[in-house]
Amino acid sequence: MLASIDTKERTYTDVAMKIWSFAEVGYQEAKSSALLQEQLKAVVSWHAADRNAVSAASSLANVTGKFRFRGVSAHASAAPHRGRSALDGVEAMDNMVNMMREHIPSDARVHYVITNGGLAPNVVPDFAEVYYYARHNDMRVLDGIWERIMNAARGAALGTDTKMELELTGAVWNVLPNTALASVMNARLKEVGGFEYTPDERAFAETIRQTLEGTLPPVDSSNQIMEPQGGVGTASTDMGDVSWRVPTVQMTAATWVPGTPAHSWQAVAAGGMSIGAKGMIVAAKTMALTAIDLMTEPAHIQKARAEFDKARGPEFKYTTRLADRKPALDYRK
C-alpha cells in the first residue's frame, strides 16, 4: 500500500517538510494569517472517535466568556443597605438571558454555570462570576445572539448598581465542509482500512461496553469504514475557523470502543492503550496519503478551491471576536 511512498521518497520528504512548517503555526495569528492567505492550499486533519469515517458535516459555532460582576460588600443583616450584591448582577443577567431564549432561533444553544456566587450567606458578595457558552450553526447568526447576551449583562449591572467586565475565553466558527477534499480522503481511508481487535483488546472492549447505555454498534466495527455523512453536528471546534480560511477536511478514527461518547472516561481508557494507538495509525496513514494526493495532483486542489470560494461567497470576510488576544490556556481557573 505504501510502496508508492518509497519510490518517490525525495518528493515526499519535501512535502513532509512543508507540512511540518505549517504545523508549527499553532495559535500565532499573524503568522497563520500569512500562511493561510499566501501559501497553504488545504488542511488535512483528524479527530479521535469510535468509528473510521471522513466527515462531510458542519458543526456549531461557539462563543464563550466569563462575566464578572463587582459590587460592595456589607453585612447582610446589620447593614444590607450599604451593600451592592455582585450575585444580584449575575442572577439578573441569567434571568434576562433565560427570557431571551424564547426569542432566538430554536436551534441555538445557551449554557451557563455560576462559577462564583460569594463566600457566605450573611455577607453581601462583592464579586460573582458566571461562565457562558452560546452556540449556533452559523457564526453570523451567533454574533447577534452574543451581542444580546452582553446587553443583558450590561443591563444587569446597571440595574443592580454593580460593575461588569467580560473575559472572552473562546470564539470558533462552524465548520465549512468541503466535499471535494472529503472524496479524496475517503478513497484513501478505504484503501488503508480499519483494524481488528486482538483477543485481549476485544475483552477490554466488552468490559467497557458494559458501562455504556443505549443501542451500541457492533464491537468489531473498528474494522469498517463508514460513509461520509452530512448535516450539522452538536460539537464545536477551532478547526471551524481554519475551514473558512482555507479548504479543510477531517476524518475520525476508531480510537475508542464502538459506542463510546466523547469526553468520557471510557474514551480516555481506550485512547491510552493499544486500541487508541491502532486508530491513530489509521488516521496517520490516511492523512499522509491524502496529503500526497493533494500535493502531487493539482486538480484536487483546484476543485476544492472552487467549491470553497462558492460556499463562502464573493463578499465573505473572516472576522473573529478573539482578535489578537492570546489563547485562554487557564480558562478553567
Secondary structure layout:
Elements: H1 3-7, H2 9-23, H3 29-38, E1 43-49, E2 53-54, E3 61-70, E4 74-75, H4 86-100, E5 109-116, E6 123-124, E7 127-136, H5 139-160, E8 163-172, H6 179-192, H7 199-209, H8 239-243, E9 248-254, H9 265-271, H10 274-296, H11 298-312
Parallel strand pairs: 1-9
Antiparallel strand pairs: 2-9, 3-7, 3-8, 4-6, 5-7
Helix pairs in contact: 4-5, 6-10, 6-11, 10-11
Give a description of the structure:
With 333 residues, this protein is of the alpha+beta class. The protein has 2 domains: 3-59 and 175-312, Aminopeptidase (3-Layer(aba) Sandwich); 61-172, Alpha-Beta Plaits. The chain has helices at 3-7, 9-23, 29-38, 86-100, 139-160, 179-192, 199-209, 239-243, 265-271, 274-296, 298-312, and strands at residues 43-49, 53-54, 61-70, 74-75, 109-116, 123-124, 127-136, 163-172, 248-254. The strands form 3 sheets. The chain has a 4-stranded antiparallel β-sheet with strand order 5-7-3-8. It has a 3-stranded mixed β-sheet with strand order 1-9-2. Strands 4-6 form a two-stranded antiparallel ribbon. Helix 4 (86-100) packs across helix 5, helix 6 crosses helix 10 (274-296) and helix 10 (274-296) packs across helix 11 (298-312). It is globular. 34% of the residues are buried. Residues 1-5 and 19-31 have low confidence and may be disordered.
